[in-house]
Fold each of these.
Amino acid sequence: RIVSSQRVALHTGEDSSRLTIYNAVVEDAGIYRCQTTDAQGQTQEATMVLEMYQKLTFRDVRSPQEFRHGEAAEVVCDVIASPAPAVSWFYQKGFKSMEITEEHYSRFQVLPNNNLQIHKVTKADEGVYRCEARVEARGEIDFVDIEVVVNVPPVLSVLQQSFNATADYQESVTFTCVTSGSPDPEVTWHRKGHQLERSEQFVLNTMEGGRSTLTIRNIIQGDEGGYTCRATNKAGAEERELFLKVFGECSSMSFMGIHTYYAIHSRSICVCAYACVCAQSQDGRMDVRGRHGKSMLTISGVKLTDLGRFDCEALSRIGGHQKSMFLDIEYMPKFQTNQTIFYSWEGNPVNISCDVKSNPPATMLWRRERLTISAEGTANTRVHTIDGKSLLEVTPVSDRDFGRYNCTARNNIGAKYQEFILAQADVPSNPYSVRLSAVSQRTATVTFMKPDSHGGVPIGHYLVNYKEVGSQDWRDVKSHGIQTIVLLTGLEPNTTYEVRVAAVNGKGQGEFSHTESFQTLPIREPSPPAVHGQRGMGKAYRLGLVKQDDGGMPIVEYIVKYKTEQWMTKLVSGQQDFALLQPLQWNTRYEVEITARNVKGLSEPTFYHTLSLSGLHPADSLFSGLGLGPVVGLGLVGLLLVIVVVDVSCYFLRQCGLLMCITRKLCSKKTATSGKSKEMEEGKAAYLGDGSKDPIVEMRTEEERITNHDGSPVHEPNETTPLTEPE
């Protein structure tokens, strides 16, 4: 039974009771029972289960953890969480991070307590191991890097075990001991059970490569004997003994070693001499310290902009030298995309993109719940990786393929993960606020608001359904793209219609909106037509007719009236878009009245008052592009051509004209010349034959004068008939 305390409070009312637990801990989890008893002593109860979730916590995980070469090593990773976390182990090798599984690493085993056991650990197993814990239910992940150090017992060797020297000759001997092991062994020198300390006689040096030397200077006879080199580290110890033989006679021996070091440095000049050199950058992040021929550059708060080449230049009185190095900035993975929700449906493939930027390049791993998706993929998943981007192609085949997918990016600096949700797409919701505008006899404009939800897939277009009231046949009109305005055409006048709108995306068509009704306008007379003038040729004028509202029925004809003093009427078919007015007078202004007619009646007239042919002449239209000389020449040629045609026609039809006169003139000259010659010959012959010079005179009576020799009458010339001389 629970009673109120400092951490637990009970609040009981008339019909309810509340239990409050302050500063809840894991131990408070369990089953709580609420029990009530009424006045009759009857008891009822209800139970509630309290689950406590504890954050991922690593407890006292040591790093580094050291082990002796050849033993079974157990790398401890104590992590707690509620619910219990899933623990994975990874081995960081260079830029790569490899997950440790028993099938790939036979000597590795993850124990039930989540610790990692390595059988017969060797130096090759040394490195950074990552203990990664995750609580899938909360999407919580954390890790800790543990450095595993394998200690190898020292191995000791000597280059020369015995030496000879001459006493009292200021001679020196150097013993060299070469050691190896991990960690680097500490070397001490011993003689007769006592450790030798540095002094003027005994010089102790430790050099690179595990070399340790003992130099005995100014050897005397008492220095002869054995000297022990002992190497010790955490894994054990080893020692070797060297011998010095001292002779009475002396010999000479000398050795001198010179070592020069060049340090990597920034572009600041560092004089690598036996002096202290100090410098600092303006922002204080780069600090240079140098002493005794060694210089060090320290960069605090490293940034990506620090990446690049650094040069160190050493100068002295006799010359200089320069060394360069390239600073590479490493950083843990960073996700470049914020899109974490993707939509698809069964049978429709979708690409989930995991775009990561890191240095060194990260390895990316896809997980679905607790299962790792291999690079080869599965029946309906494929993994494509290129240039720091990993694409997971998922083709859902059932509801099980929808849910959470995890992309984990890891390099030797750290790891990050991002959860992606593959949601099942739906059809869009219905559009709303459907409105009708610009309703006429044949057309109407439908406008509407976009739906509140596109179903996870972009809307492709809208579908507008409309029909006459009472009809069952809906007609469809698709919008242009995602425009929310649609024009309905081909409607019947004075008719009531119903209209509704639905949105369509890649998944399919959504629900229709509420049905709206509207009525088209009844048939009426057309609106007054609009006109625009166009200058014509000669005495004609082309008047353009602009189609206006026809009142719901086609325009049958246009009635065009124009006048200066008296009206003239011209009927133009309603299918034409112009009226040709002719003939018109030059330099005259006309008034025009145009009326449109359909089966309902006549429109209001449109008046056009600017029609004028001022300054327009026939010659202007025919010879407007020619000068005065060419026009006169063309006129003369035309006149000559007309004369020739008329004269030829008269010659053949009436045997008259200029051509006929010329022909007769030529023929009569030839006939007259031949007749006169003949008469002269006959007269001369008659004159010479009878020897008489008198002319021959023929006398006739009046009766004989008016008749010819053959008895036909002789026509006398009268006053109206001119006499014609014989040709």
Amino acid sequence: MCGIALIIHGVRFDLSSLLINSTFPVPKSEQLVFTIADLRAALRRRGPDSLGSWKLLLHSTVPSCLPEREIASSIEEVKEESCSEDERNCFSLANGQTESQFSTMPSSAAELHFFGASLQLRGISPIVQPLINSSQNILVYNDIGGEENDGEVLLQLLGECRSCSPYLHNTNNFDGMGEGSVPDILSRIKGPWAIIYWQESSKTLWFGRDAFGRRSLLVHWPTVADSRFLLSSVSPVSSDFEAENGTTKLSFWEELPCGIYSISIDAPKLDGLFLGEVKKHEWTNAILEELIKWERTSVEPKPEELHISSSKTLTRKHDSHSVNSDALPSKSGPMQASNSVLAQAVLMALKESVMRRSSLHTIFQAGRHDVENELVVENELVPVAVLFSGGLDSMIIAALLHECLDPSYDIDLLNVSFDGRSAPDRISAKAGLNELRRIAPTRKWKLVEIDADLPTLTFETKHVMSLINPANTYMDLNIGIALWLAAGGDGWVYEENSNYNDEDRQCIKYKSKARILLVGSGADEQCAGYGRHRTKYRNGSWLALHEEMKLDMQRIWKRNLGRDDRCIADNGKEARFPFLDEDVIKILLGIPLWEVTNLDQPSGVGDKKILREVAELLGLSEAAALPKRAIQFGSRIARESNRKNYGSNRAANQASAGSAVIHKQLDMA
């Protein structure tokens, strides 16, 4: 996990190919004031292990033998302690301009300022961004995952992207790369990523994020009022980030739509400014394009197909057993055989997904010897935690993590509540812990109970407001606060053998040190877990349901993942999404819709049917029958927010508070 950013000044941008109006002046109320120090601080929270910064200066030259101007470049490292006072304050001007920083630059000059902060999770040696090779190509990246420091591999591949060397086809996560262009290489990366890359030979800046938006990347497009081009993993906390005149300043940033972009820099013309032409490129991986289109072959069942599917619905059993990865459906007993091979296929894909996201070969190993030298026994280390409500999705992830992770490691289950022991998610988490202990008694499970009181979280609320930016509804804020607190992992654990019904149980203050957090995002979108899916089905049957699920998957980057990534990463944790693995998405798309879900059946039975069958295969019979409950309701932050901002739940419901834009001044006292 990393925090990356870029600031460009001195370039006039042509955004016509993106259909963005680059000349429309931005109102003053939409200017967001922050300093370089603010930006560094925000990035360092995401990447606490290292922070690097380099400047690329472009200037024009006129060769004696040619009438056209050429572009020359130079680079220099920027040390944090050496930043000038002007640079520290360069974002503090009211109109968003940055004249103070660039007042000494030549009139025909442009500057690209790269930032990269790293949370070291992979490889055996530390790495500091930005990465720069001998050709002066510059790369800052977020989470190009693999067994080594794949950023270095990616930089090499991008530097050689015009060649067809056989070496380029045999690299970890870069399946089949080396096709001859930057889009070819980026299209073949599996897993979440966001990058900013300067290609020196062509004077082109490349940037983008993966096709599902699993890593955050925000953009500020240049305007007449603010000519900068900015990219950042996160919005810095601004000194003026407060509600003013009934609105909040949230429109400075946009979520960058998923895809691959380039800015080709041309030499200055008469106005002395470099010209940057912005383009969006098509994905070149046919398999990825199919996943993005999210088209399912079998959507509407014939009556006999629906009857057969319904007749195979499992009777919930409490004696179901976990299956091994090499077990065949025909050898799994009558329950598994009646379940069809479809649930088995989903189970195996999910297990591989969790394995990829929890393998110790992909977890940074430096410092382990130091820990051992301090006489900390290895089985007290917790490399991976689960965002845990005790619901269907998190129970499946926890059970699969147990099967994938070395048994000597503990597993932290992070649970947040705004109503103490009475919150639905706390109740289901305790029940889920008991079920996990039943199927995996040798594993040391730690349920980390994180309790919060919303009215007292004044500073935290302001901070999370900056993290969810550009999202701006009470629902986004409630989810963001819950995720941010859960990812922090600061709570209480109880003695392993204590009875949860015992008022005198022994509790211990505990803060999870796991840097990897497994999250269940994507399960509801792909398996019809939301209430609106049932509504669409009732009003328009299978086709309407499919279209609603497709819409959810194609907008998950904007509605969910960018926000969630920022709130979790702010704690120096990396969110990983097993349900959004490309292979899992492909498997689920290949299953007939009526085998994925059956909304003629009641909640807790037919919704997310395929995942309930997976839970049965894992021995999670109780979890398999649990209804869907969103984090804002299960933790009861939505109820507390409604009371705080509207006076009561009834008043909030009448005002549609969940989707309401935050409209009044937050209490920052």
Amino acid sequence: MCPSTAAANLYFLSYKRIRRTSPDAPLEAELSWLRPCVVTGFCSKDSPWHVPFFRKKLTCVALWVFESAFADIKMNNRAHTFLWGIRQFRTSIPRSRALRTYSLVFCKPEVIHSKRNPRNHLLNGFDEGLQPSVRYLFQDIFISKSVAGCTQTRGIIHAAGFKLDRILCPRRLSFDAKHSFVSDGTSDHDLMKTNFHHTSTEDVLTKKMRPTPVNYKKLAQECNSLSDVLDTFSKAPTFPGSNYFLAMWIIAKRISEDKRRFEKQLMFSHPAFNQLCEQMMREAKIMRYDHLLFSLNAIVKLGVPQNSLMVQTLLRTIQERISECDERCLSILSTALVTMEPCMNVNALRAGLRILVDQQVWNINDIFTLQTVMRCIGKDAPFALKKKLEMKALKELGRFSVLNSRHMFEVLAAMDHRSVVLLNECSKIVIDNIHGCPFKVLISILQSCRDLRYQNEDLFKSIADYVATTFDIWKLKHVIFFLLSFETLGFRPPGLMDKLLEKVVQEPGSLTVKNIVSVLHVYSSLNHVHNVQNREFLEALASALTGCLHQISSESLLNAVHSFCMMNYFPLAPINQLIKENIIHELLTSGDTEKNIHKLHVLNTCLKLDESTYKCIHIPLPQLPLTASHPNEKLAEVLSRLLEGDGCFSRNVQLPHNYHIDFEIRMDTNRTQVFSFSEGDASSATNMQRVAVLCVPKSAYCLNSNHLRGLMAMKIRHLNVMGFHVILIHNWELKKLKMEDAVTFVRKKIYSDEALATTDESV
């Protein structure tokens, strides 16, 4: 039982005993009981006054005492005792407790207790000791020692004010002047109708002196810079400090990047910034949880270092209060954590968030909140949690808007979860609403598809056709970004590439160095050749590159020349610049040297084997390490059955210029007869054709097509120059076939049509 309850019960029993034993007991005895009972029993939050039974009991007793007091007031010459009790109830303050608060100090009030005598507490009420219900009776009382600024703590309202000798009760009890206790004609019934009204002197005082809480939206409209917000804070700091950070973030979002960088520097050097940070740390435990999360997000976005004391304090406080997190707070917290670097507090908070999401995932109603949470849980989240979130998203698929569908690609890429069903459904919505889709959204979709290894030709074709149809409204760099994204996906959009090719032929001077290198990389990698203007296109690019030789870096020049060589075109000026000794030395000693050496070897090979004017030039280069090759075992078994033994073919043949082939077969020029490697007669050698059998993966082709990509096309071109007839075996097709069907499949690839016709007639 709480102290207030015990005291109230004790007072009630004492009063009954007094009235039973001494009905004519003086009024002072009744009032000596009523005075502490009113204070401890009626006003305490944990007192029996809040229990209906005790409330009724104490109310009846109090009214009884008041009626007796009013009836005997003319005859009792000690009525001043009752008035004294009322006066004490109105204006008294326990002198044993003092609250000392200072401006902008949001710590717990300093509480000083005097020596407490329980006996005095029960007998004298307010005169001595500390009442257990003082905290609740005076919970809105203002006690201040300073007039500079204002503060607020839990349960206590602080405002700048003058030092007072006594504290005013927030709800002071007073009587109407029209009803006097000394009126001879006042009856009990009239007295019960006395007009009691409450006046709050503290409310009036606080209204005049307490600064109005600032609205961050209004503050962001009134201020033009981050420093203006800090100036406003320094003049009249208010609670909560999160509003100032939110206002600064709103202002920072609407200004340019260069101005934002300059404003942030001024913000960090502003004298009030540290004061605001200190206030924010003190407020962290008492402000609303959603305000705390909004503050963390704004502070991180403003560029405050993550290892600063304020950010770490907020992270720790959010961890301690994570049980207060609802659906809205989940969204805010997830947004803040996405942009933060891993550290102990961030990792702990993310782990707590995962547990919370696992418990509340089925209760999330807002789709954007669901997607924000999915993006935040990270790639290292448990697979079971990812699967649960995927099932929740599939369940809500019917409520997906166009924006939700576009955003889902990025969300799944962020959590590294490849849900083909979900991606297919979202792709359909994106295709149906492709018109008007922003550039950043389309690029994000393509990049997410690359990260998830998701290939949807219909989606890619829809985006490419949309860009080609609206080609004139896009900037040149945007079109090149699209093509670079398609290249990483292995998708070749002929219509869009022809559009850009025509644009380059017409306006070659509009290309920058970066644009030239990017265009050459895309067209050489996808092996795109225009039927009519291919030569003009290469000449236009070579001319544009020649005009930029004075400002191009060595690596960019190497990349550009490498792309030209893959397309079997050799511009004189760029190659002459590249083969200079100082350029070659720079490429061999700086940057990605391994990649540079490989491209220089390709350059050497192209200059030797292709039709160029540089056949006599050889660039001395380090030898490339031999890569281990493992020919397809199933294809080797098929060739053994087809050619009746291993002596008619050779495995893993290493060729000059760093080329190797999986299998080599020697046949006659008509490819009707196979020769054994042991045969050495010269007559057969004059009529011999070397056949290179290459087992190629899907990545050697553009997406869902038979169009070879650049490197494989260049290799076949060079093998033909070296005298080989090249046969390509698709390993994904061979893998599906049984052995008998695989033998038939390879026979059709190796032998010519004439030989196959002769074989069929024999059978």
